[in-house]
Every structure is written in structure tokens, then in C-alpha cells.
Automatic annotation (TrEMBL):
Keywords in alphabetical order: Alginate biosynthesis, Membrane, Periplasm, Signal, Transferase, Transmembrane, Transmembrane helix
The keyword Signal is annotated on this UniProt entry: yes
Protein name according to UniProt: AlgX/AlgJ SGNH hydrolase-like domain-containing protein
Region (Disordered) residue spans: 1-25
Species assigned in the record: Sorangium atrum
Location(s) in or outside the cell: Periplasm
Domain AlgX/AlgJ SGNH hydrolase-like: 160-412
Domain of life: Bacteria
Segments passing through the bilayer: 39-62
Listed pathway(s): Glycan biosynthesis; alginate biosynthesis
Annotated Polar residues bias: 1-12
InterPro entries: ALGX/ALGJ_SGNH-like (IPR031811)
Length: 435
């Protein structure tokens, strides 16, 4: 009979294992023996090459079939500067068919199952969405902290961008002085962020949650007032008690009701300056209720599939300001009050934003003042965009400030943490410069 006893320890050392001196020598030489059949090797090689070349080949085929020019052409058409390479990278991302198909579907799955947002939108509770820069502004470090200001300026330079002006105070004070030379009063209206006014759904708490704001916000407002700048703190327009949300659940902007309260308080502040003359004939204006409905801009920022059903359109009642004949309100360049504003001014008025027209901050400020109103408004970059537009008009010889007595400057408060507060020179009127 043949023996079935286990091999001795000396036999194991000779055939391999942790104590096999032959195996130790191979490991010391970086050799790990792997047996792969020829068929498996070919299969793995073909899969690897397919993974590497399938996407760019499919992209090239689709661009060819659609008659589109590849963004890669810029690689040889433009010098390889840092800015050009950034634009090339963005062009490749934007033109990618694979990304356009995969990203919305993956984002929808992540948002539905895990309340996962993206770099622009934060997913709160109960269907609420928040704008990421606004959340970071409210919960982040003080925007006036010297180290924060130096860090933002340094970060822009390191990225190869133009020098950044992170401190809002010099630009605001310079604007105030330029207007004062023309006998015009400046009123500043920083629009609080949704994360500060409605923090409850962001934190997942029901019931009343105290408003929040950046730690430097009150100091900033105090410094403006101390320098003689009139300021409306929109937090004081929050009703007590609250009976309805003050911001749209899926949008970065306020509700029509909160906007109208701010417009009324702003009108009282402007009238209280005592610089507006009485009008010989006050224009007749009235607010007419209308329905407006759409999904918010934060849903757009999530870049979900067009047929998504996770977020339904939100409906609100706006009050369109009309004259006695029922004509929707229009700005008037001859008015003695000028409103500079961003998307908080445009929403409910700029029809392309989808929330109605002639129903926003400007017409309701005109209604509160009982007089015509001039407007320069541009979405985004409220730190400098509207001042820049005004300066361009003045330098082009179109004196948009002629006859003005008050300029209201509205901008999103988050611009205090992320905006570029470029100092701008406004041409001095000849009468102000004369001895």
C-alpha cells in the first residue's frame, strides 16, 4: 500500500512558500512569476487598447458626422500659453459626447439616492437646493480677514489670472466719492444669500432656524455707514413671524413676496435721504398678480437629463407693475434714480429668466418711490459688471448720470467673498472739476 503522509517541512522549503529561499531571491529581484495563457493575454491587450482609443475615436466619428470642428485644432492654432491650454481643456470637456450622455444620468442617480450635488449646487433636504459659493460665503472665513484677502489675491496670480481686488471697501468708497462729486448719493444693497436667510433645509432642521451670515458682514456694513454710505440691510425686511419661505426652493433667488418687502423698505430709505424733488405729476402704477412657473436655476446647474422628474416646476404669484393703460413697466433713462443690479434685480423682470416680466425689484422700487427709475442690470459679477457698464457709457460720451440724485447699487452678498472689486474711474463732469 502507498503511503499518504504529509510532506516534511524540508520538502515544503524546497518547493516554495514563505520560507522558500528561491522565492525570497526572486522577490528581492522584483520578479513575481505569473502564468497567463496566450489567449488571455490577447484578450486583455485588446480590452486595454479599446478602453484607450474607443472614446476619442467615437468622438472623432461623431464630430465628423455632425460636421463639427474638433477643439483639438486649437492645439496647433494657438500658442501653448496657460490660458489657451485652460480654454482647450474646457473646450474638449464641453464638446465631449460621452460626457454629455453619461454625466447627467450619473448626476441624477447620485442626487436621487444620496443627495449629492456638484461644484455649483448643494442638495439640501425636502427638495431645497443651494448655490455652493453662497454656502461657502456664509459659512466660510471672514471676507475682510487680511490673510483671506492676501490668499485670494495670491491664488489668482498663481493661476495666471489678472491681479484680483478682493477687498470690496476701496471700490465702494471710490464709487461713493465719484458720485458725490456729481452731487449724487449712493445707496448700497447687498442681497443676503439663501443659505443665510433659509438655513433650515440646508441643515436638515425643521421649524425656526436663526439666520446666519458671514462673520465679517456686520462689520462691513458698519464701516460703510461710518463712511457715509447709505445701506439697506435686507435682513431687516424679513417678516416676523414668517408664514412662508423667503427664497425659492430650487433657485438662488428670493420669492416675489420677500423681494417686494425689500423694494418697499428700499424705497423708504431712498425717500428718507431727502434729495428727491417732488414730481409735478406722479406716474400711475399698480401691481397686477400673475402666475409664473419653472424649475429653478439650481436645477439647471445640476445638469440633469432634460426629462428628469426628480424636481418639478415651482409656481409663484408675481405682481407685474403696469401703468394706467395696463402697459408693463419700463425703465426710464431720464429718471433721477438709477438702480445698478445683478440677477436679483433681473429675476421676475428679465423675461428670459422664466419668472415673468416687469415684476421684479426695479419696477417694485419704482412703485414704492412713485416715480420713474433708470436701470443697468447684468446677471453675475455684481462686484464690477454694472459699474463697468456705467463707466463705459460715460467714457463713450453718454452721460447716464446726468440729472441723477441717487444711485442704488444692488449686488449678491456672496460677491463679498468671491468677487473682483476692481477700482474703476468715472469721468469727472466739467462743472465738478472747475475751480
Amino acid at each position: 500500500m502507498q503511503s499518504t503522509l504529509p510532506p516534511s517541512s524540508s520538502a515544503i522549503e524546497r518547493s516554495g512558500g514563505p520560507t522558500d529561499p528561491t522565492g525570497d531571491e526572486q522577490l528581492r529581484r522584483g520578479i513575481i512569476a505569473t502564468d497567463v495563457s496566450r489567449g488571455a493575454a490577447w484578450l486583455l491587450t485588446l480590452l486595454f487598447l479599446g478602453a484607450i482609443y474607443a472614446v476619442p475615436l467615437a468622438q472623432a466619428y461623431l464630430e465628423k458626422s455632425e460636421g463639427e470642428e474638433s477643439p483639438l485644432a486649437d492645439l496647433v492654432r494657438r500658442p501653448p500659453t496657460a490660458e489657451n491650454l485652460r480654454q482647450l481643456e474646457k473646450g474638449i470637456e464641453d464638446a465631449s459626447y460621452v460626457k454629455a450622455w453619461v454625466q447627467p444620468r450619473v448626476q441624477l442617480l447620485l442626487t436621487r439616492l444620496g443627495r449629492v450635488g456638484n461644484k455649483l449646487a448643494v442638495v439640501g433636504h425636502g427638495g431645497w437646493l443651494y448655490y455652493t459659493p453662497g454656502v461657502l460665503h456664509v459659512g466660510g472665513p471672514g471676507f475682510l480677514e487680511p490673510e483671506v484677502l492676501r490668499g485670494r489675491a495670491r491664488e489668482a496670480l498663481d493661476a495666471g489670472q489678472e491681479p484680483l481686488h478682493p477687498d470690496p471697501r476701496p471700490a465702494i468708497f471710490a464709487f461713493q466719492q465719484a458720485l458725490a462729486q456729481r452731487g449724487i448719493r449712493l445707496v448700497v444693497l447687498p442681497m443676503p444669500d439663501k443659505a443665510g436667510i433659509e438655513p433650515g433645509p440646508l441643515l436638515g432642521r425643521d421649524g425656526r432656524v436663526e439666520m446666519a451670515q458671514n462673520v465679517d458682514y456686520d462689520r462691513f456694513l458698519s464701516e460703510l455707514r461710518a463712511a457715509g454710505v447709505a445701506v439697506l440691510d435686507a435682513r431687516r425686511s424679513v417678516p416676523e413671524p414668517r408664514t412662508e419661505p423667503l427664497f425659492l426652493a430650487q433657485d438662488t433667488h428670493y420669492t416675489p413676496g420677500y423681494m417686494e418687502r425689500i423694494a418697499a423698505d428700499l424705497g423708504q430709505l431712498v425717500i428718507g435721504l431727502g434729495v428727491l424733488p417732488k414730481l409735478a405729476e406722479k406716474p400711475v402704477m399698480r401691481g397686477v398678480p400673475q402666475q409664473a412657473s419653472r424649475v429653478g436655476d439650481l436645477v439647471d446647474m445640476l445638469k440633469l437629463p432634460d426629462d428628469q422628474s426628480l424636481f418639478q416646476a415651482e409656481s409663484v404669484v408675481v405682481h407685474q407693475v403696469q401703468d394706467a393703460a395696463g402697459t408693463p413697466w419700463e425703465p426710464d433713462e431720464s429718471a433721477d434714480v438709477l438702480l445698478l443690479g445683478d440677477s436679483f434685480t433681473n429675476i421676475f423682470t428679465l423675461e428670459g429668466m422664466g419668472w415673468g416680466n416687469a415684476s421684479g425689484l426695479a419696477p417694485h422700487l419704482a412703485l414704492a418711490l412713485g416715480r420713474p427709475l433708470d436701470v443697468i442690470a447684468q446677471n453675475d459679477s455684481g462686484a464690477f459688471a454694472t459699474r463697468q457698464a456705467l463707466a463705459r457709457e460715460l467714457k463713450a460720451g453718454q452721460d447716464r448720470l446726468a440729472g441723477k440724485r441717487v444711485v442704488v447699487w444692488e449686488f449678491a452678498a456672496r460677491e463679498l467673498s468671491v468677487g473682483d472689486w476692481i477700482p474703476l474711474d468715472l469721468p469727472t463732469p466739467e462743472s465738478a472739476g472747475a475751480p
